[in-house]
Amino acid sequence: MLAGAALLISLLSTILCSVSVAAISSDDGSYELSNGNCTAPEPRDLVHMEHVQKVAIPFVTREERVTWYGDEKIYCVLVTSCNGETHSKVKLLRGGAGHTFVDLEVHSSRGYGFAYNVRIFGKE
């Protein structure tokens, strides 16, 4: 039952956020993030999914931190934009692929918001 729900959530996320994933390329972050072996993650290996959204406020930058700790060893972290907005960055602060934790930060440009889906895949 739980595996079926995870599969459904993963499929819905893919449909709602059908955008390409770009690999992180610099220390200051990237528009989207793919960390680890994310070529074909198994839906049954989805250990965490979270939707992160902040609305735009004029003259204000928006930030959100996403942290996950678990028993599974992470092999893929995918952070994909839902609205195609390119005025925000995702940064991997700690952990990620090869670890049992991940700490991410999403930061928008002044006057912009963001909407991202965070998916973490891992195995014991």
From TrEMBL:
It comes from the Eukaryota. Residues 1-22 form the signal peptide. InterPro entries: MBF2. The keyword Signal applies. Keywords: Signal. Pfam families: MBF2. This is Uncharacterized protein. It comes from Acanthoscelides obtectus.
